[in-house]
Design a protein that fits this description.
single chain; Alpha-Beta Plaits; two-stranded antiparallel sheet; about 180 residues; alpha+beta; about 40% helix
């Protein structure tokens, strides 16, 4: 496994300047690369589209949907029954149940959604990196990680991370946007 430093550039137009600066800093052309990282969910890594069944922040949304629908349905049937007595409508409890279950499922789902936490992220429930131009640098030689990070910072790189991965022929072969960065 190769040691890798990677970062996202705020402006994609800075990529050429960073690549030139890395070459001037003593890195070989096969030790760094630039690529564009698509927005979250747009990497087509999940069989039915997207990147995962759900992200880390939505992991418990299904439970909220179920409990919300049950609670909303119970409230809706009670309101529908009362409305049916007032309006002399036998279908009011059914309509109240349907509307209550729908609104309850919506509110239950929304109540369970939250920002994903990187520490709990997995490939199945990711917290993906933000979109943008990425620079990855292989830093196996002593002292190269410091030079790489200084160069990236000089050009305003964001989300600088240290990681390990498979590096072959100048490419980070096992990069997965679903795997959270380690910072």
């Amino acid at each position: 496994m190769a040691k890798i430093v990677a970062a996202r550039l705020e402006h994609g137009s800075d990529a050429e300047a960073v690549l030139s600066a890395l070459a001037s800093a003593g890195f070989k052309r096969t030790e760094f690369q630039s690529f564009y990282l698509n927005p979250e969910g747009q990497h087509a890594l999940y069989p039915i589209g997207g990147d995962a069944h759900s992200d880390e922040g939505a992991r418990r949304a299904g439970r909220g949907t179920f409990y919300g629908a049950a609670a909303g349905g119970l409230i809706g049937i009670a309101i529908g029954y009362a409305g049916g007595l007032l309006l002399d409508s036998p279908s009011a409890p059914l309509a109240g149940t349907a509307v209550g279950a729908y609104l309850g499922s919506l509110l239950g789902t929304l109540a369970m959604l939250q920002s994903g936490k990187k520490t709990r992220a997995t490939v199945e429930h990711p917290v993906e990196r933000p979109a943008g131009q990425m620079i990855a640098i292989r830093v196996d030689q002593p002292g190269t990680d410091t030079r790489a990070i200084e160069t990236l910072k000089r050009y305003g790189a964001r989300n600088i991370e240290r990681t390990e991965g498979e590096w072959r022929a100048g490419d980070w072969k096992d990069f997965d946007p679903r795997i959270p960065s380690k910072g």
